[in-house]
């Protein structure tokens, strides 16, 4: 029998893997292959933190395949040429894969599928990453959604899928394996050892994903609706990097939530489960937007913001560097940026706050912040990263009817009132009394350590400047629409 090439990308799991399940149902030998071609993802090739995760995820998946009687063939090179070489080497008759949804990769995969079929090969793709394919959800006019709530209502009305493929105990191997590269050849790990914090926080791989899910379901999910906004508490699922690399799928999460609901978890826990599933919905919405508006990683969805009066790059270089290093003098912002650098992750509420300071108070383009997140987040996901930054900047989908400017002091008082989060990541402020912790510049002289910087920006004055810039932009848009010179 001719073997099947299983082309793996961001679907590094055995459980609920539709392409793998389809291959196994044929009864033919399966050759799992991962092709490292980061240049094909340009201009959004994986950042440093993502590469670190990918290395360990591939290693974990390789071990899982070996336990199932198979192996992972690693290759470096252009995807189409590498697949065709593997077809020639193995005599494979078909190539299967699970879909990805980034604009550059959609176009690449279309070309590859056409080229394989031209060679007389069977080529088929499957959905492993989403509850709903982006092209299957539309409003009553047949147009894509731009607002989350009606989008999610439409998804829920259809019914959230929770059917999952079973985990194979064994995978039929070919009689002869092709050669593969060593994982170290991909050069994914940092040459300077800055990754100790990430290694201490995460366990990449399918086993790590399920352990994280079990830990979440055993505790934090029951109070998720309230605690998910508290950065000092372990109130979130931390499933995002596992989802991004396909170590677990959204259908598995929905299924786990439904099982808890069926057990009668109680009203409060039931509301928290619904809130968690709604967050899975936001991830779906992000992919919906990226698919229908593929220009948005670089350009605002709201075209008016193309003319927003950002500061000149030559003027904000020092402010940008202070923001990146967690040295803005705004404790909650600095805590978030230091958490990001140390762990490759940041609490979601804090992501909005640090982004707001950058784009609203410092008036640095949101694309600059998105690029930094892209390089430093282990869950760097083009769809979610784009949605988050455009939402905070006010230029994307689901934007508020007003120009939202987060006040990090008020946000800290509300969501980190006792300062657990700030004291964890900005240890030089540990001795500061709670009343001054969110705004140390208001403390009496001598209380704040000298090594902690003064604020890079006046929050009140910069808020006024941001609102004035917004009014200027709205005025220009109204004049253009009316034809006023």
Task: Sum this structure up briefly.
The protein is 49% helix and 5% strand.
Write up what this structure looks like:
There is one protein chain. This protein has three domains: 4-128, HUPs (Rossmann fold); 130-166 and 206-292, Serine Threonine Protein Phosphatase 5, Tetratricopeptide repeat (Alpha Horseshoe), CATH 1.25.40.80; 303-477, DNA Cyclobutane Dipyrimidine Photolyase, subunit A, domain 3 (Orthogonal Bundle). The protein is 49% helix and 5% strand. It has helices at residues 18-25, 48-67, 79-90, 103-118, 148-158, 196-201, 206-217, 224-227, 240-244, 250-262, 267-292, 313-325, 331-343, 348-361, 366-376, 382-393, 408-415, 420-425, 434-437, 459-482, and strands spanning 4-8, 30-36, 73-76, 94-98, 122-126. A five-stranded parallel beta sheet has the order 3-2-1-4-5, sandwiched between helices. Strand 1 (4-8), helix 1 (18-25) and strand 2 form a beta-alpha-beta unit. The chain is globular. 43% of the residues are buried. Mean pLDDT is 94; it is low at 481-485.
Number of strands: 5
**Biggest sheet details:** 5 strands, parallel
Helix content: 40-55%
What is the N-to-C succession of helices and strands?
EHEHEHEHEHHHHHHHHHHHHHHHH
Poorly predicted regions: 481-485
If you compute it from the alpha carbons, what radius of gyration comes out, rounded to the nearest whole angstrom?
24 Å
Main-sheet strand order equals 3-2-1-4-5
CATH homologous superfamily identity of the largest domain? DNA Cyclobutane Dipyrimidine Photolyase, subunit A, domain 3
The shape is globular
The helix count comes to 20
Class from secondary-structure proportions: mainly alpha
Number of domains: 3
CATH third-tier fold name of the largest domain: DNA Cyclobutane Dipyrimidine Photolyase, subunit A, domain 3
**Termini separation (Å)?**
73 Å
CATH class of the largest domain: Mainly Alpha
**Average of per-residue pLDDT values:** 94
